[in-house]
Amino acid sequence: MLRRLLSIIFLVTLFWIGLSFTLFLHASSITGPTEELLYIRVQGEISQSAENYIRDAVSVANYRQSRLIVLSLDTPGGYVDNVESIMSIFDESAIPVLVFVEPLRAVSGGTYILMASHVAVMRPGSVVGSCQPVSVTGEPITDSKYVNYLVKLMSSHAWLHTRNETAAELFVTRNLNLNAEEARRFQVIDFMAEDIKDVLTKLSGYVLIKYRDGEATRFILTTSTEAKRYQVIRTWRFENINSVAIRNFRSPSEFWSLPSYLIQFPVSLSFPVIYLYPYIYEVLVVPILSLFVSLTPVALLALVSAVNAALGVGCILFILSKRKT
User: Where are the alpha helices (DSSP H) in 30-143?
Assistant: First the structure.
C-alpha cells in the first residue's frame, strides 16, 4: 500500500516539475519591450565586484527589454581584466549602454569603458584620460607588446563607435587628459549634460544607428535626418526617453548583511551549485535579479515556477530515499 502511494506521489511530482518547467520557459519567452531605462552607478575602483554588478544590470535590462541602460561612472581606473570584460559586456548587449561621467572623472580604465559605450556623455568639469598601464605597485608599464595591445583596444572601440581614434591612442601613449568641453570638441563624447534629467532631455533628439561601413558594421549617435546618409542596419530611437520610468538596479548584496568573505570566490567554490551557475544564470538568476528592479508578472511567474520545480526535485529525492529504506 505504501509503495503504491509513493508511486502515485512520484508521478504527480513529475507532472508538477514538468508543468513548472513549462511555465518557466513560457515566462522567459513572453517578455516584451518596457518603457523604462535601467540606471546603475559605479564609483571607485573597477574591480571584480563592479564587473559582476554591471554584468547583472546589463543582463536584466536585456531580459526586461528596457529601452536604455545608463551607467553613471566616477572612477580612477581599475584592473585590466575587469575593464576588458565590461567592454565585452557592452559589445554583446542588445540594449544600448549610455555612460555618463559624473561628477569628477573616468580616467585610466574608466576611459576604456567610456569608449566602449554606445552613447558617451560627460558632466561639465569632469575629466577623462591618463590611460598608460601601470603595475600593481604603480610603476608605469612600457613594454610595447602590452602597450600596443591597449592602444589598439582603445582605438578600435573609438572606431566602432565613430569617435576620435587619434585621441583614443593618445590617451594611452601620451596620457592625454581632456575635460568635458575638450572631449566634446574633439568628438570623444557625444554631448555634455548637467544631470540625468538633462542627459535624457538631450538624448531625445537623437537616434543610435548601427550602419554598414564596407564589410564592417559601426555605431553612431546622430539625428534622424543625418541617419539617412548611412547604410542603416538597425536603429534605436530615443523619442520621449525623458518621460520613461527610471529603474535603479541595486546589487543583490545590498539587500542582506553578510561578511564579505562568505561570498568571495574561494569560499563559493566549496558549494557545488557554483559549477552550475554559468548554465542557470540566464534562465534562472536573471529573472530573479529582475525582481530587484520591479515586481513584474513575468519575473514573478518565472521565480514561482523555478521554486516549484526545485521543490518537486526535492520531493523526488525524498521519495527515492524512502523507497530504499
Answer: 48-64, 80-92, 109-116
- Distance CA(125)–CA(288), nearest Å, equals 38
Would you state the cell numbers that stand for residue 92, as one nine-digit string? Answer: 554583446
Helix residue ranges per DSSP H, the chain: 2-29, 48-64, 80-92, 109-116, 144-160, 165-173, 180-185, 196-203, 224-227, 265-268, 277-280, 286-290, 297-324
Distance CA 242, CA 37 (A): 10
The answer to whether residue 263 scores a pLDDT higher than 50 is no
Q: Which CATH class is domain 36-204?
A: alpha beta
Name the β-bridge partners of 99: 71, 120
Q: pLDDT digits over 88-125, tens only?
A: 999 999 999 999 999 999 999 999 999 999 999 999 99
Give whole-number Cα distances, 229 to 207, 212, 222, 223, in Å.
13, 11, 10, 11
Q: Which amino acid is at 265?
A: F
CA 160 to mean position of chain CA atoms = 18
CA dist., res. 18 & res. 25, Å (int): 11
User: Start-end ranges of CATH 3.90.226.10 in the chain?
Assistant: 36-204
C-beta of residue 254 within 8 angstroms of C-beta of residue 269: no
Rounded-to-integer distance, Cα 72 and Cα 56, Å: 15
Measured CA to CA, the distance from residue 155 to residue 170 in angstroms comes to: 9
The β-bridge relationship of strands 68-75 and 36-43 is parallel
pTM above threshold 0.85: no
Q: What dihedral angle (degrees, nearest 10) is formed by the CA atoms of 287, 303, 248, 178?
A: -20
d(CA 318, CA 325): 11
